[in-house]
Design goal:
Number of strands: 65
Oligomer: single chain
Distance between the termini: 156 Å
Number of helices: 5
Mean pLDDT: 89
Strand content: 35-45%
Length: 887
């Protein structure tokens, strides 16, 4: 009997454990095992055709708050859908799953929950001020919603009946791009919390929320009418990017029926339908008296014109195609908002397919879309023009609509227990298509150069966690050009564009979640022409400079040309690539060579100028720079002296100049100030000879510069002092105190030669007009030899005249020798010229004799007495011998 009792006890314990599907084992610690599968038909029973679901989180809800909290044990289902918790201590565990977005749990079935409320599926999130209540508010209550679009300040309204109490009030702000910290409301700044579930879309939509319950409750009090609240967008700093705001006020009132109010916020946009589902525990019955279910929407950036609109489906049936306009603003950016509520009609659009129904106030009656027994309400929204965002959904149902809580397992574990088959099943009720998380940036390629671009793995995201398959076409759906390929495994575009492909193409990257969800992102690929290197348009001409001279040369702007119009940067080296010589520099900003070569730098260097377009294109041109060695003065020219009336000739010594290059030098001569040589002096460059006969007016001391030119830009000069002195400066002169005239003796000459010399100093052979002068001459110059005097009858035989042209005013008999004139051996006709002291006559009162031009004593040349009258001169007798100059 005891054995039977023991058997029955064990059997009973086994039956109890089977209620939670555990299977006893011989483990040292407890385990929980199970599988997750895709329940295609939604019956909660796994069929052979139903596949596992991987990547789903299963967790132990240690605090039984129905949400996964950090630190709670969790496992992710493997590829075969299996999961396992091990090393569990003896205890009772609540096992739950985190249902992926787009799925509904079909197994295990949830228990009933009499706390009321609702739960949601979709990207919009329900505001739950009280976590213990699965709704925004449940009770005898009502709701007021209103919107405002402005770029400055305006008024939001709330309609609250008398005997009401404000339970909650929420301000929503809809913007493009910006997320300001505050906005002005009710005369004060309120802080905004920006929602992470607002889809940005093409216009970068953002939704912010503020709890303004205190401000509203203070002003409304117990209600009793319409209340105005100021809104100031200027506080944001960019009101033109704030499309509008909405005010939602929930109030309780004992005179109103019991209702469930759900406020959902975030942001829905894009042409792909977005699904949000409200799951209810107890079915609805719209056939009961006074049943009312209503919904208000808040939409930003809407302009209803037939091509811009949003559609709303309720439980698979079209409610409207005209949602979204600027009913609470105006038709300009910064004021495009509409919110169903205060002052709006609850009538639904007569033609749900019309996209231009201006009577659509975004306040709707849901009753026609509900039938008896409905336990969920599915909202499908879409914005074909991809430029509206639904940021607010406010729903009100009659009664305390009970929420459907997802199923779970309560498993008791002992140290040797393995609880198996703790399975979960999900039904794909709303596939959420992938979205563009990070748009692909535009790209640039260059013709004839390899192009490669990897699409970032985080470009697309999928709310269901589906693996995405990426493909690519042109934006118009046509295949990619032949040169461009896309590898879906590595997400890589690659190829080499041809020159014919220059331009811009728009490429579409397409993400497919395998469940009908498709999203794409377009980007532009610009193909630039291949770089064409610069060319030499005008070769640089050879240049020359000379040692010791400053050299500067600017590369002509026409030297190089770039087919692409690229800016060129020049550089310079010697032709062999070595640096420029130390004396020569190059400024690339101005393209200028500059420097001063020294004496040892002469010769020719080859310089290479390179133009770089910065894109790999370079070209060079080479030119020669000849540095001419300038000639130098080796032996300075000695100072020179010439005498008036005498021929002067001076040859520049060949050793004066030297040229390091061996160039042939050409000489020229000027005065040192650059003025020409004096008229009496000439220079023959071929022989290097200075020559001329200075006159009495040329007495001076001048500086003469001889320039040596090598014909290649090299010149050098040397300057010397040239003195022109008077003949008188070379003679021993005597002054007759009686008349102040100057006298000197020439060298032995013929009469005509002596007279010529006298004329050269602006004088004549002496004129004697009285015996006293004759005596002075005899006493001055002596009687030891004959001297020419100016008397002659060369013009008229026998008629004697003075060379000075003075009329004889003396008695010649007092002066002639006894046998003169015209006597003696010579006859007389050729004896036309007179000497004194003829035949060594020692008597001053006689001794003149006429002789031949050659001279007395058989033609012997004798000195002549030159007489110079100072009052007739055109030169300064005080400067007969100029001083030397330091040239």
């Amino acid at each position: 009997m005891k054995k039977i009792v023991a058997f029955l006890t064990a059997l009973l314990l086994g039956l109890i454990l089977m209620l939670v599907n555990p299977v006893s084992g011989l483990a040292q610690a407890g385990e929980i095992q199970g599988t997750k599968w895709n329940d295609f038909n939604g019956d909660g029973i796994r069929q052979e055709s139903e596949v596992p679901l991987s990547g789903v989180k299963i967790y132990l809800d240690l605090n039984n708050n129905r949400v996964f909290d950090p630190g709670e044990p969790a496992q992710i289902t493997a590829a075969d859908g299996k999961y396992q918790f091990t090393d569990l201590e003896s205890d009772t565990y609540i096992v739950r799953e985190v249902v992926p977005k787009g799925f509904a749990q079909t197994s295990p079935k949830p228990p009933k929950n009499d706390k009321g409320g609702a739960s949601t599926e979709g990207s919009l999130e329900m505001i739950k001020p009280n976590p213990a209540v699965a709704a925004t508010f449940i009770g005898n209550a009502g709701i007021s919603t209103d919107g405002l679009g402005t770029t400055g300040s305006g008024t939001l309204q709330a309609e609250v009946p008398a005997e009401s109490t404000v339970e909650y009030a929420f301000l929503h702000v809809a913007t493009r791009s910006i997320q300001p910290a505050q906005i002005g409301f009710g005369g004060q700044g309120v802080s905004l919390t920006w929602l992470s579930n607002a889809e940005p879309g093409s216009a970068k939509f953002r939704t912010g929320r503020a709890d303004v319950t205190g401000i509203v409750a203070s002003q409304v009090g117990n209600g009793g009418g319409t209340f105005n609240f100021t809104l100031d967008e200027t506080v944001t700093g960019d009101p033109s990017s704030v499309e509008g705001s909405s005010l939602t006020v929930i109030y309780s009132n004992p005179t109103l029926p019991e209702r469930t109010i759900l406020v959902l916020d975030g942001g829905l946009t894009g042409p792909t339908p977005k699904t949000n589902t409200l799951y209810l525990n107890e079915p609805l019955d719209p056939t009961v008296a006074d049943f009312q279910a209503q919904m208000a929407l808040g939409i930003q950036y809407g302009v209803l014109n037939g091509s811009q609109y949003s559609t709303i489906d309720v439980n698979g049936k079209r409610l409207t195609s005209s949602a979204g306009d600027f009913d609470d603003g105006s038709g300009s950016n910064g004021q495009l908002v509409t919110v169903g509520g205060v002052g709006d009609s609850l009538s639904n659009p007569a033609n749900p397919s019309s996209t231009t129904d201006k009577s659509d106030d975004e306040l709707y009656d849901l009753t026609p879309f509900l039938k008896k027994g409905d336990a969920s309400i599915r909202l499908d929204t879409a914005n074909p023009s991809n430029d509206d965002s639904i940021f607010l959904v406010a729903v009100m149902f009659p009664g305390a609509a009970s929420a459907e809580e997802r199923g779970f397992y309560e498993v008791e574990i002992e140290s040797d227990t393995i609880a198996k088959d703790i399975d979960f099943a999900n039904l794909l009720v709303s596939n959420v298509p992938p979205v563009v998380a990070n748009p692909i940036p535009d790209q640039t390629a260059t013709a004839t150069k390899a192009f490669s671009f990897i699409v970032s793995p985080d470009t697309f995201s999928d709310a269901n966690g589906d693996s995405l398959v990426i493909s690519a076409t042109l934006a118009d759906g046509n295949p990619l050009p032949g040169w461009l390929s896309f590898n879906p495994n590595t997400l890589t575009f690659s190829g080499t564009p041809p020159e014919s492909g220059v331009g811009s193409i728009s490429i579409k990257a397409i993400a497919n979640d395998g469940h009908g969800g498709i999203q794409s992102d377009n980007f532009n690929l610009t193909i630039l022409p291949s770089n064409k290197p610069p060319t030499v348009a005008t070769p640089i001409s050879d240049q020359a400079t000379t040692t010791g001279e400053d050299f500067e040369f600017v590369i002509p702007g026409s030297t190089f040309s770039d087919p692409d119009g690229d800016s060129l940067t020049p550089s310079a080296t010697q032709d062999d690539g070595s640096p420029l010589p130390d004396w020569l520099s190059f400024d690339p900003s101005s393209g200028t060579f500059s420097g001063t070569p020294e004496s040892g730098d002469y010769g020719t260097i080859s310089i290479k100028v390179t133009a770089d377009d910065g894109k790999g294109g370079v070209v060079s041109d080479t030119f020669n720079l000849k540095i001419n060695g300038a000639p130098v003065v080796v032996n300075p020219i000695d100072n020179q002296t010439s005498t008036t009336g005498e021929d002067f000739e001076f040859v520049i010594p060949g050793s004066t100049f030297s040229d390091p290059d061996g160039d042939s030098l050409t000489l020229s001569a000027t005065q040192d100030d650059g003025s020409p040589l004096p008229d009496w002096l000439s220079f023959d460059p071929s022989s290097g000879t200075l020559s001329g006969t200075p006159g009495n007016g040329d007495i001076s001391s001048i500086c003469i510069t001889i320039v040596a030119d090598d014909g290649n830009g090299g010149v050098v000069s040397d300057t010397f002092n040239a003195i022109v002195q008077s003949v008188l400066a070379q003679k021993e002169t005597f002054i007759n105190p009686d008349n102040g005239h100057i006298y000197y003796l020439t060298e032995p000459l013929t009469w005509t030669e002596a007279q010529a010399e006298a004329e050269a100093v602006d004088g004549n052979l002496v004129t004697i007009n009285e015996l006293a002068e004759n005596d002075w001459l005899w006493g001055t110059f002596g009687n030891g030899e004959p001297f020419w005097i100016g008397l002659n009858d060369a013009v008229d035989e026998g008629s004697f005249e003075w060379a000075s042209g003075q009329t004889p005013d003396i008695d010649f008999d007092d002066y002639w020798s006894d046998t003169k004139p015209d006597s003696g051996y010579y006859g007389g006709e050729e004896e036309d010229y007179v000497v004194m002291n003829w035949r060594d006559i020692q008597d001053p009162s006689g001794g003149w004799g006429d002789v031949e031009n050659a001279g007395p004593n058989d033609g012997e040349a004798v000195p002549g007495i030159v007489e110079v009258e100072p009052e007739t001169l055109d030169y300064d007798l005080t400067v007969l011998q100029p001083e030397e100059k330091d040239c």
